[in-house]
Amino acid sequence: MPFLSTYRPLLTDSRLRRLLGAFGVSDLGDGMSVVAVPLLAIEIAAPGQAGMLVGASVAAYALPGVVGALVFGRWLRRLPAASLLLTDSVLRAACLSAVALAWAFGVLRPAGLVALLGLSSLLHAWGSAGKFTLLAELLPPDQRLAGNSLASSTSSLAMIAGPAVAGVGAAVAGPGWVIGADGLSFALLGLVVWSVHREVRPDLHRARPADPTGARGSTSGLRFLRGRPTLLGLLVLTWAFNLLFGPVEVALPLHVTGGDRGHTELLGAYWTAFGLGAVAGGLTVGALRRLSPAPVLLAVVGCWSLILLPFGFGPPTAVELVCFGLGGMIYGPFPAVSYTLLQSRTPPAALSSVLAARSAVLLTAAPVGTAIGGPLTSVLAPAHVLAGSGAATLLLALTAVLAWRGRRILDRLSGPGRRSPRGPVTAPRPPAGEDRRRTATATHTPPPASPERSR
């Protein structure tokens, strides 16, 4: 069965299985904190200050990653991928555990909560970069799409299960202990990364290919992207896509719970349908053997826009749920395919810097999008905001298609000497000896596949 044969080599390798399992546990912890952080902020806030503290806490749990990516790049971009992921995991584990202990002893104050959450996220852009750089190092090129799809799918599953687990945990033990559990999940991730890195470190040093572009680990990720129009265009497309998703996150709760739409439990059904669809779509595309990434990414953006347009016509709730599930299935492949494209087009020595720069840029998209969505929902009906987001996303997709086609025409006119590499994500195989060394670090079974939030 092609689907199973694609993922079997990944799941039978003990090192990859442990690593992917640890990714899933830490993603579950982050999904729990999505609920626990606002609940804890409300609990410790001064009277009349809950809204401000919730906003500051949620922002502190994400935005400092932008600062960390820009300020510490001079030193961190020289570190191996496993060291980046381990450093971020240790910092998050320590800070989130400190939040839980301070809350348990009754000494947690609003300023302390914001400071600890901000410190915990300071290196998270580098941690994310280390995660997908490590996967690229462990997997041969034709297995990266499948590996990235598994990693992205665990994140989607975690965002379904995490809030539900956090709701129960906060009711039984309190939100502080839920955040402490998130800290423990990162401690587990750090231990697994450390043990896997010890096992594969000699193989990675032998298998690491020479960088044909001459890029060094100290190369700025943003500077590298500016010199690669295809990768820069992918970053712009992803940023705009995430920006236009922001109003959806604001308008959907108002649309679902407003008027005669029913109870707040229905909102969970929408996001559950989206998450399950994202898992199904991501794993299905990850099983494909050959894939041209640019058309897939453009199709995802365009088809997602069409999913939102019917909301403007007031369809029944059942139809909206089906649309949102289909939307998740359409969106599901986007993270894995985009990561695989970056891994295949970026020299290994520059990959962590490029991925950290990507994370830093994308961290700014969702806050801007939600900030735009707030005023829009005060002027327009939430259903019209959803449809408007779809229309704007459709315009984005059409613009991106025109830019991509124009780039291809210019490449042809400029001649083969200047033509940028295109084609399927699966990269040309290295020499036989090197391929055996690369494959040995990931699995003993020759694989057949290739793959690639997050909004």
TrEMBL record:
<feature type="transmembrane region" description="Helical">
    <location>
        <begin position="177"/>
        <end position="196"/>
    </location>
</feature>
<keyword id="KW-0812">Transmembrane</keyword>
<dbReference type="GO" id="GO:0022857">
    <property type="term" value="F:transmembrane transporter activity"/>
</dbReference>
<feature type="transmembrane region" description="Helical">
    <location>
        <begin position="20"/>
        <end position="46"/>
    </location>
</feature>
<protein>
    <submittedName>
        <fullName>Predicted arabinose efflux permease, MFS family</fullName>
    </submittedName>
</protein>
<feature type="transmembrane region" description="Helical">
    <location>
        <begin position="268"/>
        <end position="288"/>
    </location>
</feature>
<feature type="region of interest" description="Disordered">
    <location>
        <begin position="413"/>
        <end position="455"/>
    </location>
</feature>
<feature type="transmembrane region" description="Helical">
    <location>
        <begin position="295"/>
        <end position="313"/>
    </location>
</feature>
<dbReference type="InterPro" id="IPR011701">
    <property type="entry name" value="MFS"/>
</dbReference>
<feature type="transmembrane region" description="Helical">
    <location>
        <begin position="52"/>
        <end position="72"/>
    </location>
</feature>
<feature type="transmembrane region" description="Helical">
    <location>
        <begin position="319"/>
        <end position="342"/>
    </location>
</feature>
<dbReference type="GO" id="GO:0005886">
    <property type="term" value="C:plasma membrane"/>
</dbReference>
<feature type="compositionally biased region" description="Pro residues">
    <location>
        <begin position="445"/>
        <end position="455"/>
    </location>
</feature>
<keyword id="KW-0472">Membrane</keyword>
<keyword id="KW-1003">Cell membrane</keyword>
<feature type="transmembrane region" description="Helical">
    <location>
        <begin position="230"/>
        <end position="248"/>
    </location>
</feature>
<feature type="compositionally biased region" description="Low complexity">
    <location>
        <begin position="414"/>
        <end position="424"/>
    </location>
</feature>
<dbReference type="InterPro" id="IPR036259">
    <property type="entry name" value="MFS_trans_sf"/>
</dbReference>
<feature type="transmembrane region" description="Helical">
    <location>
        <begin position="354"/>
        <end position="373"/>
    </location>
</feature>
<keyword id="KW-1133">Transmembrane helix</keyword>
<dbReference type="Pfam" id="PF07690">
    <property type="entry name" value="MFS_1"/>
</dbReference>
<feature type="transmembrane region" description="Helical">
    <location>
        <begin position="385"/>
        <end position="404"/>
    </location>
</feature>
